[in-house]
Amino acid sequence: MFSRRKTDATPATAPTDVTSTTGSGKGHATPRRKQSEAANKRPLVPAGRAGNSKSVRAAERAAAKVRREQEYQAMVTGDDRHLPARDRGPVRRFVRDYIDARRTMLEYMLPGVLGFLVIQILAQQVSSYAYLAVLIAFYLFVIATIVDVVLRWRRLRKRLIAKFGPTTSMQGLMLYTVSRSSQIRRTRMPRPQVKRGEDPS
């Protein structure tokens, strides 16, 4: 008697299509992965250059060959316009002329070491005193070479300051001087442009 009969049934509401009523959608279908990859693909060579790539490479090779020939001729003649960057400039030119005009002990270091090795082998077979004498002579030669390099660089540095001014950058010049001095004169590149004993101007 206390139960209540449900006479009115709640009408069922049909689900609404969210995608059709909302206006925040992309408006187009999501592209597939293959389509995205195909759209991102680009040719390595642009279409404008594809036809003349061989001619471009040939022109670049010809230009590089001309530059190498000019650089080699500059290494022989001393033409500063086509020298490599490490040899270019009046300061580097003066360093080369200063070293080339003088005999240095460092240029005889490599032949001297080879000669001392041969003499040591022969002296070891003669007596221990002869071997010791050769060894002492070798160390004296090395010490004299180091002293010669230090004194020569100090004199060259003074000449550079007197000629080009106190603001002249000395960065890398000591290594350049030692490298030039350690080479035998006829193998030096750029080729020497002064004679032995000639004072560079």
Over the alpha carbons, how many angstroms does the gyration radius reach?
A: 41 Å
How many alpha or pi helices? 8
Shape: elongated
Structural class: mainly alpha
- Proportion in β-strands: under 5%
Residue runs with pLDDT of under 50 for 5 or more positions: 14-24
Question: Into which percent range does the helicity of residues fall?
Answer: 55-70%
Order of helices and strands: HHHHHHHH
Number of β-strand runs: 0
- Average pLDDT confidence is 81
Describe the overall structure.
By secondary structure, this protein is mainly alpha-helical. The protein has a domain at 104-187. Helix content is 58%, strand content 0%. The N and C termini lie far apart (133 Å).
Feature tags:
about 200 residues; mainly alpha
Fold blueprint:
Layout: H1 18-21, H2 33-40, H3 47-50, H4 53-77, H5 90-100, H6 109-126, H7 128-164, H8 173-181
Helix pairs in contact: 5-8, 6-7
